[in-house]
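Aim 2 progress update. The chain analyzed this quarter is reproduced below.
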Amino acid sequence: MGPIPLKARWKVPRRSHFQKEEIKWFIRPGVRTLTCLLISQKSGDISPERCGGTNGVLYMIIRKLTGKRAGTFTCVVAVFAGLFFMCATAAYAVKDMPSSGEKQHMKLVGYNDLQGRESLQVTTKGNFVFGGHHNRPGTADIHFNPLTQEDEENGTTILNISDPANPILVVHIPNEGNRNSRSASVVYDFMGSGKDFMIRNSEGSGTWYFQVFDITEITRNNGTAYIEVGKLMSTPAGTLTQTAHKGYFSQGGLYYVGANEPGFRSGGHLIVWDMSDLPDVAPNANQDLGPGRFVGRAWLPGQKFSEPEMGSLSGHHPIVDEANGRVYMAYLTGGNVASFDIGSGPKGVDSRYDVAWAIDTDPPGSGTHTVSVIRYDEVPNFQESELPRIYAIVADEATGGDMWRFTDVPQGVRDGVRDKVYVFDVTNADEMEVPFPVETWQVPDGDYLSRGGRFGPHQFNETMDGELNLFEDKIAYVAYFNAGVRAIDISDPYNIKEVGYYVPQENERTGYIGGDQPSPNIQINDVDVDYRGLVYASGRTGSGLYILEYTGK
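Predicted structure tokens:
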């Protein structure tokens, strides 16, 4: 097989769902804030969490005018003053919060505290952003939701980002039983049905599944209602076991996930379900949508109990390129990177998609997290006869076992090898069955090791506006834990250069990730890019969501 033909599929930004009744998003927070203030003014407990919502605008106005304690009259005046000036002061919360002391060619556009929830995957789609939350040992799994005036377990937060300087909290969909819902996949107008759906993972208490929600009322009607349609709990092999991590929901009707089934060793592999009839399914939160919709699976040799063990292998999550019939997976345990050929269609219950190519980075690497395959029409030192070329960009995940504990001596130095970003030439990988390594990149140590928390990459923006990112601008944004967000120029795959960065300051929401840190620490966990090119970065230790703009190009 020759070079992989990657097609240019740049999409024109779709028409926003947020064009009717925009005023609702400005009035609702003010009404809720006023109600809360009238109830709580007797105790004087006015805080951004209890009465200000998460955009911070009304809260800061109230605090500036009245101080911590305020009577009913001053609260009313402040709230309506905030409503009147909200459009003009949309960036007020950003202006008021401390600006990063470490930044280059990136600026803060907007911010939302996400109620202090520990956050992982952030997914943008049109004028909404979806934040997946998870719990960390020793930290609170319950946070106050100002919209419902209830304490809720971590779940999924949906924000309206039509004005990125003033992201508005729309709804938080709580989980139950201290479960993790770290991922969220979204499709609009699914299969031409006029319905919009979200699927999130749910892990904990010995059970693993994916929850399917109809979010049409939110995304199309500016409402807050959602309907749980059902769960993906099993395949013909049985109920999911050990993990149900992250997935990708395609407009073509398929849902690709990293999960585990009976018959497989501990870890995760690719599972695919056909959800094309989903719009016709009657809502039933407890129904298992999985068995009859199973399409196929893929795994590396040694993951199945019937095969000779090849060491620990755990596929993290799929990066899906349906147009070219490929799914790419990185393996957090094992350090492998694999390309699965899905072009031949469904494989059935007892067979699997073929492995097109694979490489094992461990040793000397530690564990891979994200992989994207990118077409290059120009590469320095390559003549036209050798173009186009195809390269895979891969990010490790700096985990708790790799050089990040504060108590190590010297600080942060442990056994192993520093995590990094890799580049592989995969132009002829199908023929060679293994890609060719050409470059690595990492942030210089500086004083990051002594700050505590994780230092190293986690993930880069493999999607853009909910679709596969083709990286046409050849700029990638890397979530680098305590080193913030790093912008890297990948236009020359043999010479990656950093062209910008933004490291937020700790705030009152920032918590701990572990390692006996003496103080809270910034841990940027995930990044995504919206249709405008703005960067959205989530905080693993509850510091919030940062909306950034790259200004270097």
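The first helix runs from residue 24 to 40. The CA atoms of residues 298 and 352 lie 5 Å apart. These observations will guide the mutagenesis experiments scheduled for the next reporting period.
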